[in-house]
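look at this stuff:

>
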Amino acid sequence: MNVPSNSLIGYLPIGFPDLETSIDAAIALVENGVDVLELGLPYSDPVMDGLAIQKATTTALQNGFRVRDVFAAVEAIRGRVGVPAFVMTYWNPVVQYGVERFARDLGDAGGAGLITPDVTPDAAQDWIAISEQQGLGRVFLAAPSSSDERLRTAVESSRGFVYAVSTMGITGARQDVDAAARSLVGRLRDAGATGPDTLPVCVGIGISTPAQVAEVLGYADGAIVGSALVTSLADGGVAAVAATAASLAQGKAR
């Protein structure tokens, strides 16, 4: 199932600062205007993540996070809110857990699918087949540096949405969202992600203000916010991350 258009997508890592608080925080995002959840699976080598997310996932791991906790968290969250909940994970934990087992347990928990930043469609044939069998979404990343052929492959292989990386580099709030994002979304449209019934394009990395959410939603189907939410949770707990989500959601009305 594709994510709705005009979506605010909020990222938080599962298990930060502890499992129960991360569940409460994710629910608070939805209660304050977030339309789709991206739930991060903490990993020891998060090569794409900026400092705020690295610190949060390290804390989660130090506090005893285990891969099986992701399924308990998704089930608890989905039991209280009805929005799609994707799990963002590097590929190694899925392989170690067992790809088919992971897909089955995620589906049983009510998860929408996986966002996989470090695996390309041509290296994910097992996952593509298993996710198809389980009815799960699979979100591949597209970058400004991608060739037109790779963009077509990302669009053809993704289910739910395709993740347009707004700028090269690691995640983290930036003062200006890279202008390359608009061009990349246009190229993905040309590659087949067009029309109301086809694959949505959602933009992430560097979005941290309501104005940036509004800007991105002017040309893309979704705006993905991570580091700003993680920082709010780290600094002020669930109340603070709820307030940040509500502020970001104002960008949808502009």
User: Anything to note?
Assistant: Residues 7-253 form a domain with the TIM Barrel fold (CATH 3.20.20.70). The chain is about 45% helix and 15% strand. The first helix runs from residue 19 to 31. The mean pLDDT is 91.
